[in-house]
Design a protein that fits this description.
This protein has about 100 residues and is mainly β. It has 2 helices and 6 strands. The protein has a 6-stranded mixed sheet with strand order 4-3-2-1-6-5. A hairpin with a 3-residue loop joins strand 5 and strand 6. The C terminus is likely disordered.
Length: about 100
């Protein structure tokens, strides 16, 4: 299946435990291999809060998800990890995540 960035932007992203976590906002390409490397997802407020992702009143929380965490792409993008598994790709993930 061939998809353009226009087709993917705005598509819902769902974790493996069935929660809609947000929408695709940006695709990042590897310029040498010419393939998608990761997707930036604009997180839903409750998911950003659950993960401890940085957000503000004016800016939604965002998370860059590597392609290795994507299970399938169709009407929605389905991840191969549960919501809480996304903490490993938060900026500063080597530090302990705050408990919620």
């Amino acid at each position: 299946m061939r998809l353009s960035d226009d087709n993917l932007r705005g598509r819902t992203v769902i974790s493996s435990d069935g929660l809609a976590i947000g929408e695709i906002s940006t695709l990042f390409l590897d310029s040498e291999a010419w393939r998608v490397e990761s997707l930036q997802v604009r997180l839903r407020k409750e998911i950003a809060d659950r993960l401890g992702a940085e957000r503000s009143v004016f800016h939604a929380g965002a998370l860059e998800i590597p392609i290795r965490m994507i299970h399938s792409v169709g009407d929605a993008v389905v991840l191969s990890v549960e919501v809480d598994g996304l903490r490993q790709v938060l900026p500063g993930a080597s530090e302990p995540a705050p408990a919620h």
